[in-house]
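Friendly challenge for the regulars: who can give me the structure tokens for this chain first? No prize, just bragging rights.
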Amino acid sequence: MQESLWSQLRFPFPPEALEWRIVELSQDSRQARVRPQVRTAAVTERLNQLLGQENWSQKFLPVEGRAIICELQIAETCKAAVASFKYDWQDAVSAAYDAFVYAAEAFGMLPGPAIDKLYWVDYDYENQTILYEPEITASAEFVPVEPLPVKQDKPEGQQAIDRLVDRLRQDGLGLEAAKLLVSYGGYGQNPEAARELYSKLRALLVQGVQA
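First reply, four minutes later:
Bragging rights claimed.
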């Protein structure tokens, strides 16, 4: 892949593309140390903008012990990251999103502020939320280069699943679609599983239209 595209992928994300995750609390629980993290939608948007949907892919694999692995493929390079969850499917889907962002971080797709810096903010223990976000300076304007030409080597079945998932996201059913993708480890481990996944996604779309 062109070096200019790699540079654009790794360009620091602006403040509006970030969210802040709590890492630890102070002893009196009045302050929280937070970590800047790029929003999932911002990572996806940049990948699509620079590479096109056909030139990158992701696969989710469940791991024993309540964890999700995301394998992110960009060009000929694949990097993986893992995120854990504590409770139910809602947490599992959130962990899948985190694993996706962590895999992108492994490619150098990082927020503008340093992720290893200590950012302490006031914390509302009763509502379990931070009271304000750290003030950071925006990076220089991001100017994308021309995207890669479309590759045709992605199987038609995976392209069909991608189109269904995009439609479900547009209809507000992205969370339910993500649950299915996680449970099938991405596109499914074999053709039969892929067909079953497609059928369930299609049924979900039909239910959404009829609702």
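The CA atoms of residues 68 and 96 lie 6 Å apart. The longest strand covers residues 18-25. Your move, everyone else.
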